[in-house]
Amino acid sequence: MHDIKWIRENPEALAAALEKRGIERSEARGQVDALIAADEARRSHIVQLQEAQERRNWASREIGNAMRAKDMARAEELKAEVAEIKGFIQTGEATERELDKALHDALAIVPNNPLEDVPVGKDEHANVELRRFGTPRAHSGWTKEHYEIGEALGLMDFEAAAKLSGARFTVLKGKLARLERALGQFMLDLHTTEHGYTEINPPLLVRDAALFGTGQLPKFEEDLFFTTHGEGRLGLIPTAEVPLTNLVREEILDEGELPLRFTALTPCFRSEAGSAGKDTRGMLRQHQFYKVEMVSITDADSSRHEHDRMTECAETVLKRLELPFRTVVLSTGDMGFGARKTCDIEVWLPGQNTYREISSCSNCGDFQARRMDARYRPSQGKGTRFVHTLNGSGVAVGRALIAVMENYQNPDGSITIPQALRPYMGGLEKIEKD
After folding, report:
1. Which one from 326, 357, 377, 414 is the annotated catalytic residue?
2. What structural domains and CATH numbers belong to the chain?
């Protein structure tokens, strides 16, 4: 969320940032003007309330003076004025709450400002490749997609999943289920033992306030699943970013505690409301999937370096699995709502003969921290500052399974187990049909 004071002082900067995200100039300017107008209405009303309170206090004192002077007519006149002012203040306080909410709601749907080094463009076609690793395996006559391999092995069952839950669910069996579990454990061990992240086992159900803090609400409510809870509701996490980042909500940390680095392996739940017709075959886009998440909480000066570090941590997963990938920086039009810069890692899938996203690492600056009221005390100077938050997939476990299946498939339909995963598979070297 943006600071309205900054917007008042830098209206053109926000309008320019919105234009970079693909909003037309007139619409961007209109959105900024509406925010400033809402703030001016709120501030003007607050001034009126303050003046009324001062007048009430003055009149109350004058009542006492009139009573001591035995000027009862004047006292009654002032009492009537005080009663009228009290009514205005009571109504005015309700109006103030409405104006506060209107400004808050308007600010809540304004996206983060891109950093100056983010490429400007309308969509993914403007993304810029940073680097590549490995040599993509060529698509050949016997190369299959993951769902063809899994079904032929009898270890991936979409029909059973459809009977249980409908479309976009998968049942994994036997050694393939163990391979997915092995991937998650391997990633957790890597991030905790080598990359310095603290493992967290968070709740999978969270309050609206937590989803608001990381930016899923209110803008992306249709992408979430909710369950009733008492008289309210709880949301199923779309990513462990939500509970991990909100661990510092409404906290004031000491700068010496930073950075905080958290990681978690959790199921994630997404309705994929805006993905009709996309990746309907297989398990590339599911309502339920596992992901290892990384979250960092830093001071204001360290987040850019931390973003590079986090991206390298995610890349290490694929390097250890010897999976070809490329890393791209997303354009302003392809970047997420809460990010000021995002790097995507795309793994090579020979079955599709293309690269597909397997990790997104984003620097959100203080955008989420303002929504969560998460601060720190600088070691030098007074007061507090908002922390900076970062999140990244380390990586999506289901997509890593797909990548392993397709890159390590053999002409006979078997799957060779990557060396890094064999200790997690009891030494198994290959998955073959029984």
Report:
1. 357
2. 4-108 (1.10.287.40), 124-431 (3.30.930.10)
